[in-house]
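Worked Example 4.2. Consider the chain below.
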Amino acid sequence: MYITAVLVNLFEMYMSIDSDSYNTEYNHIIRKSSVYIGTINSNMEVYEAISQICNTLGFKGFILIDRNRNVDRNEERISIRVPAELRGQIQDRDLDKLARDIFYHSRQKAPTIKSAHVIDNTSNMLVTLGKDKYIVLLSDKANSLPIPPNSLEAILQKLLDLDREHRLRSRLLEIVLALNEASDPKQLLVKLYEKLVEFGEHLALAINISSQETIVYYPENEDIPKIVADAKDAQVLGHILKSFPISKKNASQDSIGTIYVLVDSVSASSPIYRELLEVVELLLPHLYVWVNKYLQVHRIELETEKKNLIFNASSDAILVFSDNRLIQVNPAGKKLLGIDQVGEHLQDLDKICEIGIEEILNLESPSIIRIETSIGTRELEVRKLEPENPNDKQKIITMRDVTEQRELDRAKSNFISMVSHELRTPLNSILGFANVILSGATGPLADRQREFLEYIQSSSRHLVQLVSDILDLSRIDAGTFTLHKSKVLPEIIAKQVVSQLSGLAAEQNIELAFLSDKKIPKIEADGRRVEQVLINLVGNAIKFTPPGGKVIVRVRNQGDHVLFSVSDTGPGISEEDMDRIFERFYQPIMNPQAATKGTGLGLAIAKSLVEQHGGKIWVDSTLGQGSTFYFTLPIKT
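Applying the procedure from the previous section yields the following structure tokens:
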């Protein structure tokens, strides 16, 4: 009964149409419409579901038809999709006529046809799914529907919604694959434009990545960048500008950029542009990955460019080795060493140095070497640089020509040594005579005379110590300083120092304590110089610790070395002072009353002596909580 009623309605509709008008309208559709026939992928879940419905209802298959209109150009495109197994059974001309008939009748002012009805005086069933979207169920004979038409429509609508989502994701995959080929934001927009322009020609894209300028891509109109200048969602100069934050979850708080889609206001009302925005929104997580990767690569490129500038502009020679070959050398290195090309084996470079390159790579950093050049013997300071990646097997060394600097240092050291020697004799004489007079050998002294002589004695001792320190440093700088090493017990040296300075600590009302591990092995060292280092550290601790404080001297066994430490409860040292505490003549003002009693050379000498033994020295301190000075000496040298 239902099928009969539909047939009657269709017959009456056909009879009411004037044949001339039909031909005119039909020809108009032919001229203004383009039909595209494609194949449905049989692997789609939607395809399988609709096929199952067709089999259940007695239909042999189906086709999908939809129409996209371009109002601006007065054109339309009819898309027909046919299952692969039916593609060869149906003629294109039949599909073309079927689609044009459907859309011709849909444009007439005939009575509204039910959503599910028979078409073409055949047993085929047409189901309308929204505006300009249809599904045609194909059949060899007419059958009555076992379910209500509206139920069939709802089922098919749901399936087509899934189909649309699948097509969007398939298109999304194509776009993502294309985006992966882009190497910069401009190429990204070009690739994206090529994939999205099918949604409509009135399209422009722009992207803004953190800390970079906004890039706009619109092949046809050079004025578009002006529209995107104020990047906000708005209608600007007849265009709709829509922005999307490039983030993981479309949230502006973790955004690393913005993508802009610009369309003319007329086209923006078309459903196809709404689909365009939906595709862009689905793309955002993928754009986030691309932009994040681009920013990382861009950052690496900038760092590499900066390193290359430093590498080429450096006045120091920089040599990079890998697999026992020289793989890179900067211009300063080529000039200094006379190297014309890279790739040479280490043994081929030995001729330029007094020792082999392989030995240089194993030297302590920094070290001084000599090379013969066309202008004579040069002294170079060699430093080894550690690669940023610990797994990197490359070895990098720098060489700085310090010939003139070292000659000046030697001249300065010789001058200081000569002056110090000349000063030492009269200073010792002054100190000796002051001691004799103070002892009463020349007769009784008035209180005023004794006060002046004690001041002379104190100042002379200070000057003698200063001269001794300067002589030590000059000998170290000149390379004439010699350690007299022997097997010594570290805890015995430390105990002797504590015993020597216990009287000074008692005068200042400071507790001086000594702690040591039970088993401290002997070390090979210059006992007198180790004692000198400890006297300097313990003396400073007593000097800067307020009355009632405490100084602790510790000696510990650390396996391959012995660790000495001197802790105090003094005022502490600031981070700025700790960076300079071992510089010559540097004195942090921690105790104004004691600051004038030192030479500013004690810690510099201590550092040199420890390093001469192959050890290390450092300080750990917090303002207001005291300080601890550490130094290590190797057990075996």
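The two ends are 110 Å apart (CA to CA). Residues 271-313 form the longest helix (43 residues). Compare this with Example 4.1 before moving on.
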